[in-house]
């Protein structure tokens, strides 16, 4: 099973709201990723978690706060977002951190900030 | 800084045609290259992974090649079908310890019945 699940599928939130995106994988992968994809653009890396520790933060604003409660779960907490943060948020996982491993992506959460 | 380019940006072909999608990268020091498929509004589906030591990978009607020295990869789709219509993205992994993928802009393929 090479499945990564994400909830919710769609989210609409106001600029003062607090919400969370959830990602789960049961492949025993030890690296998990958050990517952001704007319309008609390729995905861009936001965060990398390796063995449940944050290893990469691609200079993402603090209104995005990742959390890795255990090796299977990855959350993205959202607060005081801006309309330009509207995008498809993709979660991915790989067997290990680093170069050689194949990444598997979830279906994404479509976020709209009003 | 690694840059990935995909040509063409869009492609329209009749059903049954064989086609080639191109991907080029500027830094040959890569660990692997992945080809993905993305349907509108959906996530990415991994099609093929080529490790840096490999020259090609095949899955069904898909064949991907890698020439590290020239910084090029191609995705060959045989006997195209309308269901192949999607955006195809290539991505390279250049980092030894982060797994960060650098994506091309994608090629949007339309296969007409």
Describe the structure concisely.
The complex is a heterodimer of chains A (114) and B (113). Chain A is mostly beta strands and 114 residues long. Helices cover 0% and strands 56% of the residues of chain A.
Helix-and-strand structural type of chain A: mainly beta
State the separation between the terminal residues of chain A, measured CA to CA: 37 Å
Strand-residue fraction of chain B? over 45%
- Main pleated-sheet profile of chain A: 7 strands, mixed
Oligomer: heterodimer
Summarize the biggest pleated sheet of chain B. Answer: 6 strands, mixed
Distance between the termini of chain B: 41 Å
The poorly predicted ranges of chain B are none
- Run of helices and strands of chain A: EEEEEEEEEEE
Description of the structure:
The complex is a heterodimer of chains A (about 110) and B (about 110). Chain A has strands at about 5, 10-15, 20-25, 30-35, 45-50, 55, 65-70, 75-80, 85-95, 105, 110-114. By secondary structure, chain A is mostly beta strands. In chain A, the strands form 2 sheets. In chain A, strands 2, 4, 5, 6, 9, 10 and 11 form a 7-stranded mixed sheet that branches. Chain A has a 4-stranded antiparallel sheet with strand order 1-3-8-7, with no helix packed on it. Chain A is globular, with a radius of gyration of 13 Å. Chain A starts with a strand and ends with a strand. Chain B is an all-beta fold. Chain B contains no helices and 11 strands. Chain B is globular, with a radius of gyration of 14 Å. The chains are: A mainly beta (about 110), B mainly beta (about 110). At the A-B interface, strand 5, strand 9 and strand 10 of A face strand 4, strand 5 and strand 9 of B.
